């Protein structure tokens, strides 16, 4: 199976733009992709790093449903989140040709300008090596929602 096929299976649809798999799981499957700044039809793509691994997406979704977005913002602070958005945007914008005419992607992580919109986007960038304090926060808190790890601990201590 090609990366494009594997990514399409994980997304449930064919990707609309070019991407590169930048993080893989132990079996070689895609976990994070890095998207080009524009889709094939020229529309801006604000999400440069996209968390697509099924297990990772599930765990981060669980963290979001337990108030993770608000907790991460409160714990990290909006000033540091803003700095992360600026780093993300600068990296993405560096890939756009200087003579580009037309719409451009905007915002920072996941297209957001202020605060945290989506823990998935932050964690994906962090897994890919991004300097993202929200992604680090997610990594530090996933154990709270990883029921399989919790069950293993219970079995080992029971």
Automatic annotation (TrEMBL):
Pfam families: DUF501. This is Unannotated protein. It comes from freshwater metagenome.
């Amino acid at each position: 199976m090609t990366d494009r096929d594997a990514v399409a299976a994980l997304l449930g649809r064919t990707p609309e733009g070019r991407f590169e798999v930048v993080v893989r799981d132990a079996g070689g499957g895609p976990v994070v992709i890095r998207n080009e700044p524009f889709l094939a039809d020229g529309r801006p793509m604000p999400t440069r790093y996209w968390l697509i691994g099924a297990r990772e997406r599930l765990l981060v979704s669980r963290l979001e449903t337990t108030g993770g977005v608000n907790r991460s913002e409160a714990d990290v602070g909006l000033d540091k989140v803003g700095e992360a958005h600026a780093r993300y945007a600068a990296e993405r914008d560096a890939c756009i040709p200087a003579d580009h005419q037309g719409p451009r992607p905007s915002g920072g992580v996941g297209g957001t300008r202020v605060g945290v919109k989506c823990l998935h986007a932050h964690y994906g960038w962090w897994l890919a090596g991004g300097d993202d304090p929200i992604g680090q926060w997610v990594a530090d808190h996933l154990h709270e929602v990883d029921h399989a790890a919790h069950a293993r601990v219970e079995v080992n201590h029971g």
